[in-house]
Design brief:
4 helices, elongated
């Protein structure tokens, strides 16, 4: 996977996240749709993609192979300090 393909995925996920947040407001009166939107929003893997891209850049900067980067599990990524 290239940095460009990861960056493209990030852009698509950001767009989807914005759309879901907007729909979440519109669906607030429909419990079933609201729940579905909230579930999808939780499943968005944006943080994991950013983490992978940062790993690749760090490996490249250190003279290592960026292909050695790997997607970390959601629990690990979610615990990072901002």
């Amino acid at each position: 996977m290239s940095d460009e393909s990861i960056a493209d995925r990030i852009e698509r996920l950001v767009g989807e996240e914005h759309e879901l947040r907007h729909r979440e407001q519109a669906d607030s009166k429909n419990e079933e749709r609201l729940e579905a939107d909230q579930e999808r929003l939780r499943a968005v893997e944006l943080d994991r993609c950013w983490d992978l891209l940062r790993q690749r850049r760090a490996l490249r900067g250190a003279g290592a192979n960026p292909e050695d980067a790997h997607v970390r599990d959601a629990d690990t990524v979610e615990r990072y300090l901002q």
